[in-house]
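Q: Focus on the chain.
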Amino acid sequence: MYSYNYTPQQNHSSKAERKALLKDNKHGSVTSIAFVLFTVSPIGAAYGNKSWVEGRGASIGRLFMSIKEKLASAKNSKKELTPKQQKVRNILNWVATAVCIVVIVFALVVAIFTIAGANDDHLTRFGDKIYMNVASDSMSPTFTPNDVLIADAFDKEANMDKIKVGQIVTFSTTSMYENARYAIYNTHRIVNVNRDTNGNVTSVVTRGDHQDGDWKAAAAEYQKDQDSRDKNVIGRTETVAIDAIVATWGDGETSGKMLKGCGAFSNWIQDTEHFGASKDVRFFCIVVLPLILLFVVYAFVLIRTLVIAKLENQRKVQAEQVVTVDSLSDEEKRRLAQEYLASLAKEQEGGGEGAPVEEDTKEEPQQDVPAQDTQEDNV
């Protein structure tokens, strides 16, 4: 039969050795603790194979080292950007932020003017001021297309004193375009005031400044008898009822306030050249669609930020739940080693006891014990 090569000195560490091993393990791996506990345990005594015990103890150390490596890889999993990539990313962020700010400001201005123009006469009103875009050159050079006039709202009961020759007024009228009649607002200068027999103003005669001759010469012609007036000097005029006047600009002697060239975009959106034929399409493409895209982008960014925050929170919680070897106290290290050895004992009780015996039996054929006994019998 085969004999086992082990002695108590090979399988049991002395008390001094165990203390030295525990001292070495104060700040390091749990391998030495596992080895000491295992060699003094019944399992160690039963198997007596030091190399097998050391291998089992080392597996505990590898277990904790794998935990430390996973934690380190989790911390370094986020890819670091190069300085050039970071610079490009910052530039793109600034550009995107600037575009968003421009769109938001533009949408805010459009919303303000839209709300201000939501009334019966569709004029943009702020208090007693009315903001109107100039769409034609009939009053050039006094003001030109795309200028924004800041006119005073007209009240027939309180502002009749403003109705005089030379005063520029805005009134409602109609215009024909492609066999259709459209309601518009026109702004021209008064060259004559019509009164009834009681001296009350009933209507005014207006004229655009962009004509041959001066408006003052046309006004002088109206002081003559109707049969002697020179129509070439008067030019093109229209008679406007007092009730049709909605605003006055200036005081007849001096011009009023205006924003030079600030109404170009608004005129294009409203398609004033074609009396609003493409107004709805342009407004949707230029105003509504960018706002929808901006809302979608910000909704995506918000959802992405919330998801990232949730994942970071979960990762933080998991990192807090994982205990590294270095953070364990000596008592906790001993407890973990004992738990691991207990699980090994259960495995061996379940039928794995032959594994270490097989390792020893592979080395025993070098001792030919039966052959020696036979030689002794022959002697």
